Amino acid sequence: MRIPKSPSLKAGRVYRTADLSRWDRNGTRLARRLEKDGKLRRLAQGLYVCEEQSAFGPVPPGDEEVLCAFLKKTPFVISGPSQWNLLGLRSTALFADTWVYNTRRTCTLNVGNRRLHLRRVRFPKRPTPEWYVVDLLLHHDSAGMALQDLEDALRSALSAGRFDAGLLREAAAGYGTRETRRLVERASASRPGP
Predict the structure, then answer these.
(1) CA-to-CA distance for 182 and 62, rounded, in angstroms?
(2) Which residues, 6+ apart, have CB-to-CB distance to 165 below 8 Å?
(3) Is-contact 28 78, C-beta < 8 A?
(4) What CA–CA distance (Å, rounded) separates 156 from 76?
(5) How buried is residue 15: exposed, middle or buried, by Cβ count under 10 Å (0-12/13-18/19+)?
């Protein structure tokens, strides 16, 4: 039996079992051996991390690293509370799940104590803050906000010049529902002029 050479793994990188097949034809077997030797830690089925060590112990991989390995070269956008709370529209959603829009699959990926909800939907190549506003409006119930409260906060933000009304209308037209488009129009039309 041929003994595979020991792969040179990069700390902090997430590997699929298929990635390990360049060192051994059976990537799954090699992953199990490396896990047993303490060189890899299993994240999810078919996903392993070569943990980076810090003074405080192992450093978990970031969502981007996990998603790049899991989705391969498929484009994706991270959304959810971490993005919505940054908009300054009084959203304070606290659930720890991350939403990932992609063009490949819909599923929930449990990585350690984190949950990544993958949704196969359309999204822009370069999301703008205005697109994230539309995303928040579409998922206001998940953020624990009433639409009227969001509309009031959006009107104030537009009045303060924090968002571009034209880009917001474009995002609503391309990615929103009829209700979202109407809400954006009301918020944009009622803001005071220069």
Answers:
(1) 37
(2) 158, 188, 191
(3) no
(4) 31
(5) buried
φ, ψ of residue 42 to 5 degrees: the values are: -70, 130
Q: Which amino acid, residue 25?
A: R
What residue type is 67 in one-letter code? L
Query: Using an 8 Å Cβ cutoff, are 154 and 95 in contact?
Result: no
Cα angle 131-134-138, degrees, rounded to a multiple of 5: 140
pLDDT digits (tens, 9 = 90+) for 41-98: 999 888 999 988 888 988 888 889 999 999 988 999 999 888 998 999 988 766 667 8
Q: Alpha helix (H) ranges present in the chain?
A: 27-36, 63-71, 81-84, 129-138, 147-159, 165-175, 178-189
pTM: 0.81
Looking at the DSSP assignment, which residues form a beta bridge with residue 109? 116
